[in-house]
Write a structure and sequence with these properties.
Layout: E1 2-6, E2 16-19, E3 23-27, E4 37-41, E5 45-46, E6 53-56, E7 63-69, E8 74-76, E9 82-85, E10 93-99, E11 103-105, E12 111-114, E13 121-127, E14 131-134, E15 139-140, E16 150-155, E17 160-163, E18 168-169
Parallel strand pairs: 1-3, 2-4, 4-7, 5-8, 6-9, 7-10, 8-11, 9-12, 10-13, 11-14, 12-15, 13-16, 14-17, 15-18
Length: 171
Amino acid sequence: GSMINAPRLSNVRRSTINVNDNATLVTAPLSQIDDARIWASGGVNFDRITDADYVMDSYQHDTDLLSAKDQNTVLDASSLKSLTFGYYNYRSTYAVRAEAGGRIDLSGLTSLGVKPAEDDILNFHVNGGGQIDLSGLRSINQTAGNDSERVRFHVGEQGTLKLGNLAAANR
């Protein structure tokens, strides 16, 4: 397999990281992941994220922000406390996707929402034995977009979605 050895790399803003069982990625803890897309598959355990606030505000229409696919794959993003999305002038659709046994840990996330005045969509897809842990989530869309923004949850066959003790949710 291939290897990227970047032990001082901690800022992956506007990057795409795709780690699978044929690749090794060595980095410092990732303290800046804004506008990045991180995908894991093939049974890898990706646990390098330490960022607390994830902002996606670049034009990445119809893309997976976080993805875990395949049995024993874990994408640990439990350090995140907030996720904010939205791109001006265009309606973008973003996704967080766990499938075929993959797991995404967002248990530390307490709030998610669209940027003010935006109309973007964030979908959570979980199926085929996939799991997404949002057990710490307390609020959705408290920043209020333009009344067309959405956060949607799609749970398919054998998918597990752990939701927190929501106190407030808009759209």
